[in-house]
Amino acid sequence: MSLQNTQFNAIMRDYDRKQLRNRHLQEERISEIFVKIPRVQDIHERIVSASAAKARALLRGESSTTQDLKEKIQRLSEEKKELLTAYGYPADYMELSFDCPLCQDTGYVNGQKCSCFKRATINFLYDQSNIQEILEKENFQTFSFDYYSDKIRDKQTGKTPLEHAKFAVRKSLDFIDHFHESRGNLFIYGDTGVGKTFLTHCIAKELILREYSVLYFSSYELFQHLADEAFSKEETSTEFTMDSVCDVDLLIIDDLGTELTNAFVKTRLFSVLNERLLHRKSTVISTNYDIETFSNIYSTRIFSRVMQNFTLLNLIGQDIRVQKALGGSK
Fold first, then answer.
1. 111: left (phi over 0), alpha (psi -120 to 50) or beta
2. How far is CA 60 from CA 56, 66, 71, 174, 212, in A?
3. How many Å is the maximal CA-CA distance in the chain?
4. Is residue 328 over pLDDT 70?
5. Are 290 and 196 in contact (CB under 8 A)?
6. Would the pLDDT of 237 be above 50?
7. What strands lie across the sheet with 186-189, from one edge to the other?
8. DSSP assignment of 148-176, as one string?
9. pTM assigned to the model
10. What are phi and psi of 255, to 5 degrees?
11. SS3 string of 272-286?
12. Helical packing angle, 38-60 and 5-36, nearest 10°
């Protein structure tokens, strides 16, 4: 997955800040040592002078002079280290330090992204997702089928809540594994408390770990942000503009239907879905509405987009929050 330019630039600015901070630290340490150990300043200046002379000798092809200067620089460097350790400092106290010695805070090793760059990318995407803390608690590692009954059966499908849940998880994992090539969409629906939001969090975390950008919103939050952008006379501070909502790799709209559904909401929802479909960007929607209610509340155009382009996942069963509060399952 390729980061968007703004995301890449944000991460690289952090590397620039690290380099600047470490250069300042080095300058402070050098000044400190020059005051406490004046002989080190003399040695440092002699090393600088000898290094410049060595460079000139190399250009002139004077190999013997180059070797003599190399040995001189080595002797001076050893003396400097001995002085530093004698005064209780590490031998490399005046050297430039790095947060990541592998890439020396550049983000790249031999033209390839360093492991620290990959960690920085994931951390950045977590921060940008809007749900970083939640994802530490709600993910596939903490998902449990224990709250889905294998005894009762849905009258319409003849399947148990457990069968519905296993199907939804299987389809979600398939959605994640084929995210790059398929760019599919999921529509997760069912009664309150059956695990729809939890499942969207599981999907979000897995894709962030694979370095895809994810934005999560409750339906109310999303349309509030878009209304602020559309109607506010002053420039809003939110970074979640219509452009960012349409550009992110995965957009999650949770609890669709909790917003005040009006003409503005319907128009914006259609625009978001249509733009994302046109640009092959994936969307996950969760809602308490059943399909019939959803079709009645939202426009025919929206319903058509969802039916034609989304995989429908129905979660059923008893309210998991109630089951947890009562200390039971199924």
1. left
2. 6, 10, 18, 65, 53
3. 93
4. no
5. no
6. no
7. 214-218, 250-256, 282-287, 186-189, 311-314
8. S-SS---TTT---HHHHHHHHHHHHHHHH
9. 0.71
10. 60, 45
11. HHHHHHHCCCEEEEE
12. 120
Average pLDDT for 52-75? 92
Residue 234: the pLDDT is: 57
pLDDT in tens, 153-175: 988 889 999 999 999 999 999 99
Torsion on CA atoms 306, 162, 255, 124, rounded to nearest 10:
-90
Q: How many residues does the chain have?
A: 330
Query: Of 207, 293, 294, 209, nearest to 251 (Cα)?
Result: 207
Residues 6+ apart with CB under 8 A from 165: 145, 148, 195, 315, 317
Going 254 to 259 to 261 to 263, the CA torsion angle's sign is negative
For residue range 189-198, list pLDDT tens digits in order: 999 999 999 9
Residue with tokens 């998880």: 169
- Cα 141–183–189 angle (5° rounding)? 60
Instruction: Give the phi and the psi of residue 231 in degrees, each rounded to 5.
Output: -110, -15
Model confidence pLDDT, tens digit, residues 276-320: 999 999 999 999 999 999 999 998 999 999 999 999 999 999 989
Phi, psi for residue 312 in degrees, rounded to 5: -90, 130
**Residue with the two structure tokens 């992110």:** 248
